[in-house]
Design goal:
heterodimer; A: mainly alpha; ABC transporter involved in vitamin B12 uptake, BtuC; two-stranded antiparallel ribbon; two-stranded antiparallel sheet; 15 helices; 4 strands; globular; B: mainly alpha; 11 helices
Chain lengths: ~375, ~300
């Protein structure tokens, strides 16, 4: 395999170790490094308004949550209709610290990386608890268990005084080595933080999927009886999958809390759970790339729907609440159409484009 | 003590509506093994069609009640025909996710109408003074609702026991291959199951709309409370749905009657079904009447 990789029209693996590498070729590694450098450097050259930076940050937070959902729904094959509740667990972990200690206590402003990790572990804990019925049941019932967790979560937040009955609980500004993060730089600062978290999480997940602890998820999804015969414990693996998903969701929730400097009930409802599912489906279930394409596509769609309904609203005075109508309509259509016509999601389009370029001038 | 009986009465009223809502859900699950997450939206659609026909068009309520059942009959049938027919044979996970998408689509369509955001209530067409027996009162709408519910459930059970279509639907739920071999069209049965579910959903919606008023959130919530009910009753048992519906209604009323206001609790009636659901899933996952076919994998 010492031939020129730049001219190769495919990857030829001669050993399992080679096939299991994170980057198939050194070219891939270089491209990824350059891409990451661009991601980190571009805000220094372009002056982006806070409004757009918030949109970008929002997409990136959703990416982390969808990576988690993809682990449980895409790789382990268990539907989770309560993912927004797990994100909410993370956010309310931060919020409960704020309620107890006050929103600009030292713990919240200085130890935020610890809090984010703690939120992840809280999410993992709740994920594992909700996944417990998996020890006895198959996936249909688990979907119902996650749905009921979503309802219990909503009730808990809505009726408990400790969480201010779902009112927004404010979270203080954080400190960095250069001092307090200023209002102007807030979104830029969190862009970098979230980007670093995404890089850690996605490399972590990519590596996890190479090891036995990741491949067992796929084995259980494909055939749980065969997995059982191979010596795995499918029930425990499902609980573990929910734990992993909960961890990603918790981290995303904590980042969401810090990014918006507040935690409100409105961001973690059943609609958001369906949004996350839509993102995972549109991006492509069972692929890591899908977790990046999905939030991007859905958020862009969201913005376009908002613009469309504003445009229609300016022409028709009667249509005042068009956004509330068009948003679920478009999400639902996107979910259904993708499932019917492109169940492998946008990640599949990316694969087709990639192999076209790679094999050019030959046809695939 | 009359407080207790009052709770029992309102629990039976709510529970019978749960039973009727759960009935449609069980029908779909029984025949095609699909969890219909969009059931609440069909219930809501039925209620809104009834209201629109009664108040805006001016048709007598009993007639419009029947017409809305026919409308959702065809709505649910076309949903099955357009979206789910082509997914037969796909993994069950993607079929369920299609129903999640459908739920979102129907949400959007309902928000396009005034019903999505505003509250409506039916004009009174029954005596408004409640019937009171020994301190326990029940309103006329509730009484008529319960009577309609139980007669519908009786009608459905007759349909499944005696009629040819009902028997063929039971055959399909039992064994699809065998029923195909004796000449039953399985896709047609799937379509019919959806249509029947739509019909019963509209009936449930109409009754809820009359008792509680038309609010999309309330109606939509009925589609989700169906899950605890069917899990308690066993996912594929019609009698289970009826019994569990009434049990769930009683539990809910007792929870909100005795727990709310004590120990700083509030709205426990809303959350109790889900807590029970999680407990049942852990300890008795096949429910009260479900078939013990759950694999421990």
């Amino acid at each position: 395999m010492s031939s020129n990789r730049w001219l190769a029209t495919g990857n030829y693996f001669t050993s399992y170790t080679e096939e299991q590498r994170v980057f198939a070729t050194s070219l891939d590694r270089t491209v990824m490094c350059v891409f990451l450098c661009i991601l980190f450097a571009w805000p220094l050259f372009f002056n982006v308004g806070n409004k757009y930076m918030l949109v970008i940050d929002n997409i990136l937070v959703a990416v982390i949550a969808v990576i988690g959902l993809n682990l449980v729904t895409g790789f382990a094959g268990l539907i989770s209709i309560g993912h927004a509740a797990f994100v909410g667990i993370g956010a309310y972990t931060v919020a409960s610290f704020c309620r107890v200690l006050g929103d600009s206590h030292l713990v919240i402003t200085h130890c935020w990386p610890l809090l984010i990790v703690l939120a992840g572990f809280m999410g993992a804990l709740f994920g594992a608890i909700v996944g417990l019925p998996a020890l006895r049941l198959k996936h249909l019932y688990l979907a119902i268990a996650t749905l009921s967790f979503q309802m219990i979560f909503q009730w808990t937040i809505n009726f408990m005084d400790f969480f201010d009955q779902g009112q927004t609980i404010s979270v203080g500004r954080v400190f960095w080595v250069t001092g307090k993060v200023a209002r102007k730089e807030h979104y830029l600062f969190w862009y970098y933080v979230i980007l670093v978290v995404i890089v850690i999480v996605s490399f972590g997940v990519r590596n996890l999927l190479r090891t036995r602890y990741g491949r067992c998820l796929v084995a259980v999804r494909d055939n749980d009886r065969a997995a059982d015969a191979m010596g795995m414990h499918p029930g425990l693996i499902k609980v573990y999958a929910f734990g992993l998903a909960g961890f990603c969701a918790g981290v995303a929730g904590a980042l969401h809390a810090y990014l918006y400097r507040g935690v409100g009930f409105d961001s973690f409802t059943l609609h958001h759970s369906i949004n996350y599912l839509a993102m995972a489906i549109v991006g492509g279930l069972g692929t890591l790339q899908g977790a990046f394409w999905g939030p991007l596509a859905i958020r862009v769609l969201d913005l376009q729907v908002e613009r469309l309904s504003e445009w229609v609203g300016s022409h028709l005075t009667a249509a005042t609440n068009l956004t509330t109508a068009l948003r679920p309509l478009s999400f639902g259509l996107v979910i259904v159409l993708f499932l019917m016509f492109e169940p492998r999601g946008i990640a599949n389009w990316w694969r087709i484009v990639r192999s076209y370029v790679k094999l050019w001038p030959f046809r695939y | 003590m009359s407080y207790f009986f009052q709770l029992v009465v309102s629990g039976i009223v709510v529970g019978s509506i749960y039973a009727l809502s759960a009935l449609g859900f069980v029908l779909i699950y029984k025949s095609s093994r699909v969890l219909n997450i969009a059931h609440g939206q069909i219930i809501a659609a039925g209620a809104f069609i009834t209201y629109a026909l009664t108040v805006w068009v001016g048709i007598p309520i009993y007639l419009s009640f029947g017409m809305s059942m026919i409308a959702t009959f065809f709505l649910a049938m076309s949903v099955e025909r357009i979206f789910l027919r082509r997914l037969i044979g796909e993994p069950i996970i993607s079929v369920i996710m299609v129903t999640i998408g459908l739920m979102s689509i129907l949400d959007g369509l309902i928000y396009l109408t005034p019903f999505g955001t505003e509250n409506f209530s039916f004009p009174p067409y029954l005596p408004t003074t409640p019937i009171t027996i020994g301190g326990v009162s029940i309103s006329w709408t509730q009484l008529v609702g319960v009577i309609i519910t139980f007669s519908m459930i009786a009608g459905f059970s007759w349909f499944f026991k005696k009629s040819t279509i009902g028997i063929s639907m039971r055959a399909v739920s039992d064994d699809q291959m065998a029923s195909m071999a004796i000449g039953i069209s399985v896709p047609r049965v799937f379509g019919l199951a959806w249509a029947m579910a739509g019909l019963s959903a509209a009936a449930a919606g109409g009754i809820i709309g009359n008792i509680t008023g038309l609010n999309f959130d309330t109606l939509h919530a009925f589609g989700i409370v169906v899950f605890p009910v069917v899990i308690l009753g066993g996912l594929d048992s019609i009698q289970g749905a009826v019994v569990a519906g009434i049990i769930m209604g009683l539990i809910q009323q007792f929870a909100s009657g005795y727990l709310d206001g004590n120990w700083g609790l509030n709205g426990t009636g809303e959350v109790m079904p889900y807590i029970i659901l999680l407990i049942i899933l852990l300890f008795k996952p096949h429910g009260l009447f479900g078939i013990h076919e759950i694999e421990r994998v």
